[in-house]
């Protein structure tokens, strides 16, 4: 396999545009040196935790990145997806397959030793997802911190805000727009599918059973036939109910954060329906082709869009949230 550059791409102009990228007019903005005095080792501790966990389990980066998406799209980047309990976000079926919680808990445990009651779980999750990308070979992105943790979490908030893998372009566009994200952000952040894996049920809508019980493509124009055949072998009829069977989002470079995802889309090898529609729409197809042809451009765009993602609906004032002692429970609740 050809080696790919993992040199960090820092964005020195980000601070100048922070107020645009992270609208937060009702409270103090996030900052790039938030823990400089209170916990200077905070980012290093999170990075080391992610690096160690990923070395033991290559699936960790994809899990952490997905965990951040599911947190930020539902009531903002406030760590609400981390809370346990009846009727919390974690209980919704869309979140049943989320992973990486143990990495966040591990980082939090260390931080509570060195900097008690200082670093929020929301910040730990944002930093962990950022570091997960770098560990997997993607760009090292500077992100501001200062998020506070939500005091509540509701399963009812999940479905209206999460993008389903069967969504159309219009459905995805509406949700991204409601979060302050553009079509460019939609295409770039979909690049997260360059790592990670999915259960068969996440793309079972693309197939149907014939009279003999064998699977066949619903839309033969949406997938390369050889790729579709490979998916059927890995997920035969009835396989979508087996939680132990997973398929890599990107079969070429499954654990490497690169622009192969976009090359797959151009070759009609997008795993999800929500991937394939990106090349069916004129507005997004040109962006897909641009990212497929220039990995450095993808990395640059990723860093910009990731900062926007990690700034959705953040809570920063004392009245807006808290610093949890445990990421799985609000303060005062065992």
From TrEMBL:
Q: Where is this region: Disordered?
A: 139-158
Which Gene3D superfamilies does UniProt cross-reference here?
1.10.520.10, Peroxidase, domain 2
Q: Where is the signal peptide?
A: 1-27
- Catalytic positions are 70 (proton acceptor)
Going by the UniProt record, its keywords in alphabetical order are: Calcium, Disulfide bond, Heme, Hydrogen peroxide, Iron, Metal-binding, Oxidoreductase, Peroxidase, Secreted, Signal
Q: Where does Ca(2+) 1 bind?
A: 71, 74, 76, 78, 80, 89
Alphabetical GO CC annotations of the entry are: extracellular region
UniProt cross-references to Pfam families, sorted A to Z: peroxidase (PF00141)
Keyword Nucleotide-binding present in the record's keywords: the answer is: no
User: Per the annotation, how and in what number is the cofactor bound?
Assistant: Binds 1 heme b (iron(II)-protoporphyrin IX) group per subunit. Binds 2 calcium ions per subunit.
Q: Which cofactor does it need?
A: heme b; Ca(2+)
An example GO BP is:
response to oxidative stress
Provide a Gene Ontology MF annotation, just one: lactoperoxidase activity
Enzyme class at the top of the EC tree: oxidoreductase
Domain of life (superkingdom): Eukaryota
EC code: 1.11.1.7
What is the official name of this protein in its record? Peroxidase
Annotated organism of origin = Linum tenue
